[in-house]
Backbone:
């Protein structure tokens, strides 16, 4: 201590030699002490009272004195513990000293300097009004060039990337070391960790240009080191956001530079993402991308697991396991279950369970006896179920379905149209049957056939961006007077052009919303117009702002619903906190008049006797709840925080808010049974509000979809055993079918590649189904249950998450 105090005193000496000797002594002591910062070094403690004296000595020293820069270096280190918060004295003194050899002062000093450098850069950017970024921050960038190589050399990848993001210099990762031009900053030893952290940071970057630069850098690094599969994943994230290099061009470059085995691996990734990229140079690879071999892979998997034998709905219900007398009676008396709704449920369960196996015990046997056990819309569902059973097998499937196109029953023909779309979903086949067969049925004289053909086209070409399908469906939005057909055409086009920001389709939908009468917008399906619009801007962020301004001119409640849907779809899976807060404000809105929501326990006898009419006044609140989950999904921390938010909404929310919470919970964990959510769903299935309980049952099916989860299976069996209402039992059966979908080999999760990628078309199909559930009594429990066919698109062989516990 005495030596340090003596050295400080000698710094004030008039003799330059004495000053230089004292300064060298202080520098040596501080350097030796800061090489390891397990605790605050003693020199920093003892020099604290002399900090102002040292600053005064530095200020009084002449610029020509060689020791002035060394004294500035010393003060920069002392400022770590002695400067006032926000003064940025570390950076201030270091700029006056030497910027080389920063590591000699210790890792903690470099970290502290990087922190102040980032804060100073941000402050300058906020105060800079003239856009002189290059000149305005040149002194800071020179320090960045010294700090980043030091961090990378010492495995501090996160600190290096954080500093580059803060100073908008992420492209420097593609360069070399300043003093070693032959050595790249990111090499074979660290590029995987650097890129992984880069991509994870992308979740928290709000500026689209910064995000694009970040992903471009990660893509270039992966490509430079020959990690083409990871580079393809980044290209899928970028899509066509980079106008200079379109997505297809990036893919072509990657495929051309790899060997055959890597091409196949990348082809499977594109197939899982339902990409439209075509690689004509290798037909086998192109067949994989188009999912043309999916049926054979799926059959091989089923054969290896010995589950090719068809299952019946009763194999799923397992009524004989029930404890009550009623369940035992139902399992022994088959005629009791031969009702229209029970048959309809059996049709769906049979289709879900045997999906893709091309064999069942109800529809594929000769005679079509099961088809004629149903009536009207039940026949439609039965015929359409063939599409699910024969899914991905276009040759055999069309042979079986074709005969139903010539049936005398219009509902059977409608079901066949839907089956054609389902059997072709996510498959790019050379014969392209949907566009060859369905357009003539879109112009049919029967309304139900037209509707089924429109939905079939949407399912078949979801995410494809096909212009010939646009030419077929666009006139329906423009010219048709049937709002239900217009709504189906809008949502189908939304699915086909999802995430493309297609201005022509958006203009058609908005124009229809403006011209439609209030009476035509009162039907529940009118909200599909807003959903179709939202899907066009799915994941595109600020690009949907202009359309939001246009929707503000629509006075009908459907316009408000469309605005909420568009805004949440635009920021889907981004974890944007500001959007979540905005949706929470919508959920907290209070209304003066009593709000009666379909299925709510507040409905009086007089109101129940009135004609069924959906309540659209507060429907936007339900969509806001779904929007919260949609924005938060894909970002684990935000999803966990959202779970607590939903608890508050359940306790204090209005009926439209509460009814959407189970669906929102399921959206957070699609095909991924989280035990906490399963328990919460189980409690909500007994809620006093019938709409909440029905949605909770559906939510259980979605959370466990394709997993055969034994816990959920047991809960659903108990619900079926004690169900008092036919509608409740029907929904339980649907949930059981979803749970055992594909005999446990399928998933409906839109996420893949370790949840780093999201299939926009798959999420669009899920959202369509969830919007149906918001008014279940008018859709799934009424005559539009065939919209369950939306589940066909996002069914894909499971990736295995340890959830198949049976």
Residues:
């Amino acid at each position: 201590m005495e030596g340090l105090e003596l050295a400080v005193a000698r710094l004030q000496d008039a003799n330059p030699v004495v000053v230089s000797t004292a300064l060298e002594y202080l520098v040596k002591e501080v350097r030796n002490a800061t090489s390891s910062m397990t605790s605050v070094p003693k020199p920093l403690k003892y020099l604290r009272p002399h900090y102002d004296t040292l600053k005064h000595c530095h200020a009084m020293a002449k610029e020509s004195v060689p020791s002035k820069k060394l004294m500035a270096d010393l003060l920069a280190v002392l400022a770590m513990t002695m400067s006032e918060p926000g003064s940025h004295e570390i950076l201030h003194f270091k700029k006056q000293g030497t910027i080389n050899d920063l590591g000699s002062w210790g890792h903690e000093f470099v970290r502290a300097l990087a922190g102040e450098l980032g804060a100073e850069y941000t402050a300058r950017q906020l105060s800079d009004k003239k856009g002189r970024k290059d000149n305005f921050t040149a002194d800071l960038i020179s320090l960045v060039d010294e700090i980043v190589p030091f961090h990378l050399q010492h495995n501090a990848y996160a600190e290096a990337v954080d500093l580059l993001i803060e100073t908008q210099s992420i492209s420097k990762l593609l360069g070399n070391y300043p003093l070693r031009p032959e050595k790249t900053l990111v090499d074979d030893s660290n590029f995987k960790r650097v890129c992984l952290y880069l991509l994870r940071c992308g979740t928290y970057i709000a500026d689209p240009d910064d995000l694009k630069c970040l992903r471009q850098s990660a893509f270039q690094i992966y490509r430079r080191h020959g990690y083409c599969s990871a580079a393809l994943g980044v290209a899928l994230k970028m899509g066509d956001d980079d106008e200079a290099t379109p997505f297809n061009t990036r893919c072509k470059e990657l495929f051309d530079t790899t060997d055959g085995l890597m091409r196949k691996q990348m082809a499977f990734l594109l197939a899982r993402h339902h990409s439209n990229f075509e690689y004509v140079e290798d037909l086998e690879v192109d067949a994989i991308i188009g999912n043309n071999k999916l049926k054979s892979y799926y059959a091989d998997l089923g054969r290896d697991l010995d589950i090719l034998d068809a299952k019946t709905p009763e194999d799923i219900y397992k009524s004989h396991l029930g404890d009550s007398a009623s369940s035992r009676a139902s399992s022994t008396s088959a005629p009791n279950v031969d009702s229209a709704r029970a048959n309809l449920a059996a049709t769906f369960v049979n289709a879900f369970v045997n999906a893709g196996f091309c064999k069942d015990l109800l529809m594929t046997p000769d005679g079509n006896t099961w088809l004629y056990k149903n009536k009207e819309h039940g026949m439609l569902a039965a015929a359409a179920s063939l599409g699910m059973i024969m899914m991905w097998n276009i040759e055999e499937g069309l042979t079986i379905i074709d005969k139903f196109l010539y049936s005398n029953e219009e509902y059977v023909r409608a079901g066949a149209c839907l089956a054609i779309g389902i059997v072709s979903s996510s498959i790019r086949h050379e014969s392209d049957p949907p566009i060859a067969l369905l357009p003539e049925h879109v112009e049919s004289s029967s309304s139900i056939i037209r509707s089924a053909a429109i939905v079939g086209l949407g399912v078949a070409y979801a995410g494809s961006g096909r212009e010939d399908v646009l030419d077929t469906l666009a006139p329906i939005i423009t010219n048709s007077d049937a709002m239900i057909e217009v709504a189906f055409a809008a949502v189908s086009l939304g699915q086909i052009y999802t995430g493309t920001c297609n201005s022509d389709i958006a203009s058609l939908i908005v124009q229809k919303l403006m011209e439609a009468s209030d009476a035509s917008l009162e039907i529940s399906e009118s909200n599909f117009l807003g959903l179709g619009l939202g899907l066009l801007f799915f994941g595109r962020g600020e690009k949907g702002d202009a359309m939001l301004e246009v929707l503000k001119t629509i006075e009908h409640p459907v316009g408000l619903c469309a605005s909420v849907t568009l805004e949440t779809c635009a920021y889907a899976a981004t974890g944007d906190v500001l959007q979540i807060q905005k949706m929470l404000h919508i959920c907290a809105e209070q209304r003066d008049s009593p709000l009666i929501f379909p299925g709510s326990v507040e409905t009086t006898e007089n109101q129940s006797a009135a004609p069924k009419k959906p309540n659209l006044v507060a429907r936007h609140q339900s969509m806001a709840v779904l929007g919260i989950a949609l924005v938060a999904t894909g970002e684990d921390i935000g999803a966990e925080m959202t779970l607590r938010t939903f608890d508050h909404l359940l306790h204090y929310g209005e009926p439209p808010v509460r009814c959407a919470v189970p669906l929102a919970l399921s959206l957070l964990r699609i095909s991924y049974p989280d035990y906490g959510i399963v328990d919460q769903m189980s409690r909500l299935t007994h809620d006093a509000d019938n709409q909440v309980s029905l949605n909770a049952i559906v939510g259980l099916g979605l959370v466990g979809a394709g997993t055969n989860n034994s816990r959920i299976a047991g809960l659903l069996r108990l619900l079926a055993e004690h169900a008092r209402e036919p509608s409740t039992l029907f929904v339980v059966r649907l949930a059981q079918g979803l749970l055992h979908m594909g005999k446990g080999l399928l998933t409906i999760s839109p996420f893949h590649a370790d949840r780093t990628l999201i299939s926009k078309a798959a999420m669009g199909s899920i959202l369509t189904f969830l919007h149906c559930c918001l008014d279940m009594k008018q859709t799934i429990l009424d005559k539009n249950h065939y919209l369950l066919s939306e589940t066909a698109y996002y069914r894909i062989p499971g990736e295995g998450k340890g959830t198949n516990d049976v």
